[in-house]
Design goal:
The complex is a heterodimer of chains A (114) and B (117). With 114 residues, chain A is mainly beta. In chain A, 0% of the residues lie in helices and 54% in strands. By secondary structure, chain B is mainly beta. The chains are: A mainly beta (114), B mainly beta (117).
Chain lengths: 114, 117
């Protein structure tokens, strides 16, 4: 089955700096890669996603890049703000068979300091 | 219908008791997923349904766990003879099946937190 690894496990940045979180996946059948943000005590919420036919996607201060050949994808947050502090999870999913469920990474705790 | 609803939000039980959680997905979503999340970890897949059919169960899911989605709408997750290691947040999510716009996007409920004493 799919295995998703995520690094780093914790990340501390100063307000206004950029943050980068990296993930690798193992199943070449995976074709959908979402990122979820989870604040303490709350549900995971989708912040951005990318499909395998696209190499990069941007939404305001958030961008995701995908390298299918190397099987890795990254989340980039620019101009970080205190409200970006949360745990971020990457995930991977395919369409059929055992790849058709979303497999999550272990999470990155991002802390944005003033 | 404003999202995925889960009930109860919190459950405290004694070891050996049975517990049942309920999930009401977004009404037009035909896929429903159950995940378990422990502190500091990512959500861990348990099982999922497409309509009323249970299509996959994690190998990690012992036979004390059973899930149903009898009419293809709400789902229940039952844990029999609970153990302390079952203490976790049980998350439900729903999505459209593949091939349609918005498919694959999982929307999560707020979760049911289980504490086994």
């Amino acid at each position: 089955g799919e295995n998703v690894e995520q690094h780093p496990s914790t990340l501390s940045v100063q307000e206004g700096d950029s943050a980068v979180i990296k993930c690798t996946y193992s199943d070449s059948a995976s074709n959908y890669f979402p990122w979820y943000k989870q604040e303490l005590g709350k549900r995971p919420q989708l912040i951005i996603d990318i499909r395998s036919n696209v190499g990069e996607k941007k939404d305001q201060r958030i961008a995701v890049t995908l390298n299918k050949t190397a099987k890795h994808f990254s989340l980039h947050i620019t101009e970080t703000q205190p409200e970006d502090s949360a745990v971020y999870f990457c995930a991977a999913k395919g369409d059929t068979g055992t790849a058709s469920k979303l497999t999550f990474g272990t999470g990155t705790r991002l802390q944005v300091t003033l | 219908d404003t999202g995925v609803s889960q009930d109860p939000r919190h459950k405290i039980t004694k070891r050996g008791q049975n517990v049942t959680f309920r999930c009401d997905p977004i009404s037009e979503h035909n896929r429903l997923y159950w995940y378990r999340q422990t502190l500091g970890q990512g959500p861990e897949f348990l099982t999922y349904f497409q309509n009323e059919a249970q299509l996959e169960k994690s190998r990690l899911l012992s036979d004390r766990f059973s899930a149903e989605r009898p009419k293809g709408s709400f789902s229940t997750l039952e844990i029999q003879r609970t153990e302390q290691g079952d203490s976790a947040m049980y998350l439900c999510a729903s999505s459209l099946a593949g091939g349609r716009s918005g498919a694959n996007v999982l929307t999560f409920g707020a979760g049911s937190r289980l504490t086994v004493l």
